[in-house]
Amino acid sequence: MDLVKIGKFLQALRKEKGLTQEQLAEKVGVARRTVSRWETGSNMADLDILIELSDFYKVDLREILNGERSSENKNEEVKEAVRQVAEYGNEEKNVKRKRLNRDFIIGGLCIVLILLDHQFGILSLVFRAPIDSFVAGALTGLGLLFEFVGFYNNNHEISLKQRKQQLLMRKSFES
Q1: Region 108-123: what's the mean pLDDT?
Q2: What is the pLDDT of the chain when averaged over all its residues?
Q3: How far does CA 60 lie from the centroid of its chain?
Q4: Distance between CA 115 and CA 140 in Å, rounded?
């Protein structure tokens, strides 16, 4: 057993809880100097106190004796981090999908309005005034702009996915 490593681990656990050596000593019924000796690695706590510390810090006794968190906990932390990243990715994907749908819908509506106006004079009827070529051109331009933005964002999203897949493939080959 590496007493110095165990001591540093006990010190890190105590600091995570926001306790001073004196406060911890009061909780476990020892002198502050005793806690100091555990943390410097010059002395080891009795087994009953180690069990009490493992319960208090909510860590496995083996972790205290090894002086580090076990790989099981690390795996859980990694799984949690991956889950959070996936959630964030899904939220980001939903926002992008909504924007893309909005762009296509607005662009499509503008183009349909211009086509209907050109064929049937719909806009002139709705606004009860003739629509001049400037307004028609502006609506056409707006419609095409939104369609272009939608296509660009869609292609950009596809190229990002391809780059991510290439990076993942490269990393899997390097491993």
Answers
A1: 75
A2: 77
A3: 28
A4: 9
Residues in CB range of 65: below 8 A, 6 or more apart: 1, 6, 50
pTM, entire model: 0.43
Bigger pLDDT: 27 vs 75? 27
List C-alpha distances in Å: 131 to 1, 60, 101, 110, 123: 87, 77, 28, 14, 7
